[in-house]
C-alpha cells in the first residue's frame, strides 16, 4: 500500500481547487459583498441563505448550522468521502499528480472505493454508448429513440446507451480494463448468483444517471424485448455507495446552470421527457429516477434555485391528468411547504407527456405547456373538490371540509383568505362558511417543532468539557474578540509584530483556543498559504466551526482592510483588557487602607496611573478606525 499524500501535493491541490468552483456544482452562489458569495446551506434546511463562501481565503462557513472548512472539508461532507478520496477527486479534476510518501503515484487500483466505482460507471457508460451506436443487436434501441424524435447526436448528447443481451459482455469488457469484480458488484453493474457473475442490465436501453458534478453514479434501463426475463418496464441501479435514488435527479447535471440562471425548475416524469424538454427549449427540466419526488429532491432544487425569501423562483410539475397524476400532485403539495418558490402544475389536456407532445405538435407545444402552468394549490383544490357531488348539500359540506385543511396548510398566511374565497367559488358556498372551516382546520394542525439554529459550540476544548451554559461565539459580548481574531486570521500579514495580545484578552473559551493556535507559530509576513493550515491543525476539531466562521465573516468596516485598521482592532481588544484591569485595581484600592497598607496602596496607585495612560493611548489608536 502507498503511504500518505505528500504535503506539498495537498498544498498544490488546495491552491488550484477554487472553492467557489467546487461548491457551485452543488449550491447556487450569488455575490454577497466583500468578495464573499452566499447560497442555501446543503447541510441543513433553511429559508434564508446563511452559507458563505470566501474564495480569497478558500473557506466556507454556514452561519446557520456552523458547518465550515476548506475545499477538502466541503467535499468530504457533501459526498461522504475520506480526506484521501476528496484529495484524489480534486486532484483528478484540477490536473494535479499526487505523490505518496512511499514514492511514485499509486495506480488506479489503489484509489478509494468511491473513485473506483465512479471510474467503473464511467467506463460502463462509454461501453453502452458505443454498443448503441455500432452494434447490430442495438437496432431496436435506435428505433425506439428514432420513433421519439431522437437521432444519434441527441443520444450522444445525453449519453444514452445499449446493454448487450449477452449476460457477460460488460463484465468481460470491464475486467479487460482491470476493474475489480467486487467493485462491479458494489456499483450495481454486475450481479452475483450461485452460477457466478452476470451483467445486471441486458438487452435494455440505458440512460446514465449523473450527480451534479457530472459523474455517472448509476443507470436507468428501459425494457426493449418481449422475452426480457424482467417484467419491469424500467430497471434502475440498486442502492449503492454511489447511487441514492432519493437524492438524484436525471438531467440535473445539464440543467443546473439554467435552473440557477432562470430561477425555474421543471420536474417531468421520464428520461425521454427530459430529453424532449431540453431539445424543445426548456433546458431546466429534470426527472426523478424510479422513485417519487420527495424531500431530498426538494433540497437539491432549493439549493440550485437559491430558493429564499428575497429571490423567489418557480418549480413546475408536469403530471399526467389521470388518477396517478392527481396522487402525485397531492404528494407534491405536501412537499410544497418546503419551498419558498411558487409551485405550479402543467397538464396537457389530452394527457400527453412532453415527449409525445413534442413528437406530435413540435417544440413550441412543449414550451406552451410549461408557459400555461397553473398554481399547484389550485390544481390540488380542484381535484379534491371534484371528488364530491356538489349538487347535494352534504357533498358541498364534505368538499369544504376536505379542502379546508389544504388551505389551512398554505405557507403564505397572507394568501389564505384569497384561497378561501376561491374555494367558496368552486364549491358554491358562502365565503364565511369556508373561512370558518379553514380556522377549524388550522386549530387541528400541530405545527412541527424546529430546533433552534445557532452556533455549534464544541463540547471539548483542549481536553476540557465546556459548561452546558457556555454562550454562543456570536453573542454580542464577544464582538470585539471576534473582530480582532477575524483580522488576524484573514489578514495575518497586516498584524503588528508583536501583536500585543495574549490569551487573557479573550474570554470565550473557543476564541481563546483559536488565539492559542495562532500564537503558537510566527505570523507570516507575506502570502504564506500553509500558515492557516497550521492554525487549523493546532486548533483541532473542537474549534473547526469557529475557525471557519472567522475565516469567512467580513470585517465590520468599509473598504479593504489595511495595517492601520488591523492595529486598531487589536488595540481595541487590549483597551478592554486594560479597562477590566483598571476596574479590578480600583476595587482593591477601595478595600485597602492607605495608612496601614501604604506600600501596597502606593504600588497599586502607580499601576493604576500607568494603566490609565496606556488605556488612553490604545483608545487613540482605535478611535476612528472601527465602525
Count of strand segments: 19
Spans of at least 5 consecutive residues with low confidence: 104-111, 447-460
Number of helices: 25
Strand content: 5-15%
Overall mean pLDDT stands at 83
Strand order of the largest sheet: 12-14-13-15-16-17
Entry keywords:
Dna Topoisomerase Vi A Subunit, Chain: A, domain 2, 627 residues, alpha+beta, six-stranded mixed sheet, DNA primase DNAg catalytic core, N-terminal domain, DNA Primase, Chain A
Explain what you see:
With 627 residues, the chain is α+β, with helices and mostly antiparallel strands. The protein has 5 domains: 7-110, DNA Primase, Chain A (Alpha-Beta Complex); 113-243, DNA primase, catalytic core, N-terminal domain (DNA primase DNAg catalytic core, N-terminal domain), CATH 3.90.980; 249-381, Dna Topoisomerase Vi A Subunit, Chain: A, domain 2, CATH 3.40.1360; 387-444; 460-622. Helix content is 47%, strand content 11%. The protein is built from 25 helices and 19 strands. The strands form 5 sheets. It has a 6-stranded mixed beta sheet, with helices on both faces. A 5-stranded antiparallel beta sheet has the order 1-2-3-4-5, with helices on both faces. Strands 6-9-10-11 form a 4-stranded antiparallel beta sheet, covered by helices on one side. A hairpin with a 4-residue loop joins strand 3 (51-54) and strand 4 (59-62). Helix 18 (416-427) packs across helix 19 and helix 21 packs across helix 22. It is flat. The model is unreliable at 104-111 and 447-460 (pLDDT under 50).
Amino acid at each position: 500500500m502507498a503511504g500518505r499524500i505528500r504535503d506539498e501535493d495537498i498544498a498544490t491541490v488546495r491552491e488550484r481547487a477554487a472553492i467557489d468552483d467546487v461548491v457551485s456544482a452543488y449550491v447556487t452562489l450569488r455575490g454577497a459583498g466583500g468578495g464573499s458569495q452566499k447560497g442555501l446551506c446543503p447541510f441543513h434546511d433553511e429559508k434564508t441563505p446563511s452559507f458563505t463562501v470566501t474564495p480569497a481565503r478558500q473557506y466556507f462557513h454556514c452561519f446557520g448550522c456552523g458547518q465550515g472548512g476548506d475545499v477538502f472539508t466541503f467535499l468530504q461532507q457533501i459526498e461522504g468521502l475520506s480526506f484521501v478520496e476528496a484529495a484524489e477527486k480534486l486532484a483528478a479534476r484540477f490536473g494535479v499528480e499526487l505523490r505518496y510518501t512511499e514514492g511514485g503515484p499509486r495506480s488506479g487500483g489503489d484509489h478509494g472505493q468511491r473513485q473506483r466505482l465512479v471510474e467503473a460507471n464511467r467506463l460502463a457508460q462509454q461501453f453502452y454508448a458505443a454498443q448503441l451506436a455500432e452494434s447490430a443487436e442495438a437496432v431496436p434501441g435506435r428505433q425506439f429513440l428514432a420513433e421519439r424524435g431522437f437521432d444519434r447526436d441527441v443520444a450522444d448528447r445525453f449519453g444514452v446507451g445499449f446493454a448487450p443481451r449477452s449476460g457477460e459482455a460488460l463484465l468481460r469488457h470491464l475486467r479487460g480494463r482491470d476493474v475489480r469484480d467486487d467493485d462491479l458488484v458494489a456499483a450495481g453493474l454486475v450481479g452475483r448468483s450461485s452460477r457466478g457473475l452476470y451483467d445486471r442490465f441486458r438487452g435494455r436501453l440505458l440512460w446514465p444517471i449523473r450527480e451534479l458534478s457530472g459523474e455517472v453514479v448509476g443507470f436507468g434501463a428501459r425494457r426493449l424485448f418481449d422475452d426480457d426475463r424482467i417484467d419491469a418496464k424500467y430497471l434502475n441501479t440498486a442502492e449503492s455507495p454511489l447511487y441514492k435514488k432519493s437524492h438524484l435527479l436525471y438531467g440535473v447535471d445539464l440543467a443546473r446552470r439554467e435552473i440557477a440562471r432562470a430561477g425555474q425548475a421543471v420536474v417531468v416524469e421520464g428520461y425521454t421527457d427530459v430529453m424532449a424538454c431540453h431539445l424543445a427549449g426548456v433546458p431546466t427540466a429534470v426527472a426523478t429516477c424510479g422513485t417519487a419526488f420527495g424531500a431530498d429532491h426538494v433540497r437539491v432544487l432549493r439549493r440550485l434555485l437559491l430558493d429564499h425569501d428575497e429571490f423567489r423562483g418557480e418549480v413546475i410539475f408536469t403530471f399526467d391528468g389521470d388518477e396517478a397524476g392527481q396522487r402525485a400532485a397531492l404528494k407534491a403539495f405536501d412537499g410544497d411547504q418546503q419551498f419558498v418558490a411558487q409551485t405550479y402544475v402543467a397538464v396537457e389536456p389530452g394527457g400527453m407527456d412532453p415527449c409525445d407532445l413534442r413528437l406530435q405538435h413540435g417544440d413550441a407545444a412543449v414550451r406552451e405547456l410549461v408557459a400555461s402552468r397553473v398554481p399547484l394549490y389550485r390544481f390540488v383544490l380542484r381535484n379534491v373538490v371534484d371528488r364530491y357531488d356538489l349538487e347535494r348539500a352534504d357533498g358541498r359540506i364534505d368538499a369544504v371540509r376536505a379542502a379546508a385543511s389544504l388551505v389551512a396548510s398554505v405557507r403564505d398566511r397572507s394568501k389564505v383568505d384569497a384561497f378561501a374565497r376561491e374555494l367558496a367559488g368552486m364549491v358554491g358556498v358562502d365565503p364565511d362558511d369556508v373561512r370558518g372551516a379553514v380556522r377549524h382546520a388550522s386549530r387541528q394542525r400541530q405545527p412541527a417543532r424546529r430546533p433552534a439554529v445557532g452556533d455549534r459550540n464544541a463540547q471539548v476544548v483542549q481536553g476540557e468539557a465546556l459548561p452546558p451554559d457556555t454562550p454562543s461565539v456570536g453573542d454580542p459580548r464577544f464582538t470585539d474578540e471576534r473582530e480582532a481574531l477575524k483580522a488576524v486570521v484573514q489578514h495575518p500579514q497586516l498584524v503588528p509584530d508583536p501583536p500585543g495580545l495574549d490569551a487573557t484578552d479573550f474570554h470565550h473559551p473557543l476564541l481563546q483556543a483559536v488565539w492559542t493556535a495562532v500564537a503558537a507559530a510566527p505570523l507570516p509576513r507575506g502570502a504564506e498559504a500553509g500558515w492557516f493550515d497550521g492554525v487549523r491543525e493546532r486548533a483541532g476539531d473542537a474549534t473547526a466551526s469557529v475557525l471557519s466562521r472567522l475565516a469567512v465573516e467580513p470585517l465590520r468596516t468599509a473598504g479593504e482592510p489595511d495595517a492601520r485598521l488591523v492595529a486598531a482592532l487589536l488595540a481595541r481588544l487590549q483597551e478592554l483588557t486594560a479597562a477590566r484591569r483598571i476596574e479590578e485595581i480600583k476595587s482593591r484600592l477601595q478595600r485597602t487602607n492607605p495608612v496601614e497598607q501604604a506600600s501596597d496602596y502606593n504600588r497599586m496607585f502607580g499601576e493604576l496611573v500607568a494603566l490609565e495612560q496606556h488605556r488612553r493611548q490604545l483608545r487613540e489608536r482605535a478611535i476612528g478606525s472601527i465602525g
